[in-house]
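User: For a reading group we're discussing how well predicted structures match intuition. Take Acetone carboxylase. Before you show the prediction, I'll give you the sequence so everyone sees exactly what went in.
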Amino acid sequence: MTDRVTAPLSDAATPVCSAKGCREAAVWVLAWNNPKLHTPERRKTWLACEEHREYLSRFLGVRGFLKDVVTLADWEGGGGREGGQEPEGSAADR
Ligand SMILES: [Zn+2]
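Assistant: Thanks. Here is the predicted 3D structure of Acetone carboxylase, as structure tokens, for the group to look at:
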């Protein structure tokens, strides 16, 4: 897999938490967008360990930046971005 998730602090193979000074392995991906800087479709990502997920999501949340919080596994697993449209089953009409 290629690195779709990059954090400023991580240059190693293991993604680490984006919280300042934290070296824990990241478990969560916080997807956010600053409407003053980014187009609406743009997603910045922060990584968070269990301990900092709430802290970081609140930090983004109070600014209205936070869009999504998913596990790292889900984020990398793909298919997880704004899907949710299931094709209609074809009714047998002929
Ligand atoms: Zn952390």
